[in-house]
Specification:
Helices cover 62% and strands 7% of the residues. Strands 2-1-3 form a 3-stranded antiparallel sheet. Helix 4 packs parallel to helix 7 and helix 7 runs antiparallel to helix 9. It is a multi-pass membrane protein. Belongs to the FIT family. FIT1 subfamily. This is Fat storage-inducing transmembrane protein 1 homolog. May play a role in the formation of lipid droplets (LDs), which are storage organelles at the center of lipid and energy homeostasis. May directly bind to diacylglycerol (DAGs) and triacylglycerol.
């Protein structure tokens, strides 16, 4: 009984926060400010912290599979939320297609960024036994004619024009999580039925959002890389704006999945009221 009451209290509180108009209007600005000023945290963090090692289990377990974790929890929440309301597999698949579009966009950008790094980079060999420059770093000798894959296989380093894919992914996942879970608050305010499995999935999504924000701050504080991280954050925010503030605002049809919650809340209210709620929670 206590666990059930605590679950309802915590999820109601989180749903009100994520569905709050001020939060929805300013979350992307807060995330942008974190990416812009986050590297300044490196002045206060300890280089001997456990989070200063990229071998930390949080980086290995979650960061390297960030999109997979996001798809598992957000996809489960979207499916259960939409199917429990409409009992329609086609409606659930339509809402799930937003994840497929975002995933395709992320993979496409990663491929383009990889091509950019290959086209603009060069291979360098480290002279470990040679003389050192004044700042204590070993000399690097340019190796011409080496491809990126050959260079890395030979144990050498590749230097090219980079955009932080980790920051790009974390920013995109944070904004996606905030968008997809924001509809739960209006649904509860309309008296929607929410069983324990749906609330647990929602809570997992909220915890995942908190974890992504924490890992983003860790990357910015312990591994600052300017301007690659700034470019990655900008690319993530632009991707979110193009999808959730652009394409998904069109009427749902065969080429547009629509906004989160569109076609679901009208089971509790009229279509015009549903539009008001969606506009209220997706307003910039």
């Amino acid at each position: 009984m206590f666990v059930s009451t605590a679950l309802v209290f915590v999820t109601d509180l989180a749903a009100r926060l994520l569905g709050n108009r001020l939060f929805r209007q300013h979350f992307h600005l807060l995330l942008s400010a974190a990416v812009l000023f986050g590297p300044a945290l490196s002045l206060w963090v300890s280089p001997h912290s456990v989070f200063a090692r990229k071998s930390h289990f949080l980086y290995r377990l979650f960061l390297r599979s960030g999109w997979g974790w996001t798809c598992i929890f957000v996809g489960s929440f979207i499916f259960l939320f939409s199917f429990s309301i409409r009992r329609s597999l086609s409606v659930s698949v339509r809402h799930l297609s937003r994840l497929a579009v975002a995933g395709g966009l992320w993979i496409g950008f990663c491929k383009l960024l990889d091509l950019l790094e290959n086209a603009t980079g060069s291979c360098y060999e480290t002279l470990n036994a040679g003389p050192e420059v004044s700042n204590g770093q070993p000399l690097l000798v340019l190796r011409e004619g080496e491809s990126r894959s050959e260079c890395l296989r030979a144990g050498m380093s590749w230097r090219g024009y980079e955009v932080s894919e980790d920051v790009f992914l974390l920013c995109l996942c944070c904004l996606l999580l905030a968008e997809e879970t924001a509809v739960f608050g209006p649904y509860l305010s309309l008296g929607g039925v929410s069983d324990a499995p749906l609330r647990i999935l929602f809570l997992f999504c909220v915890l995942l959002l908190g974890l992504w924000i924490f890992l983003l701050l860790c990357l910015l504080a312990y591994f600052p890389q300017f301007p690659t991280q700034l470019l990655g954050g900008a690319l993530g925010c632009l991707s979110w704006r193009a999808l959730y503030q652009g394409w998904y605002r069109l009427e749902p049809n065969w080429f547009c999945p629509g906004r989160p919650g569109q076609g679901l809340l009208n089971s509790k209210t009229s279509t015009s009221q549903e539009e008001d709620l969606l506009n209220h929670n997706h307003h910039n």
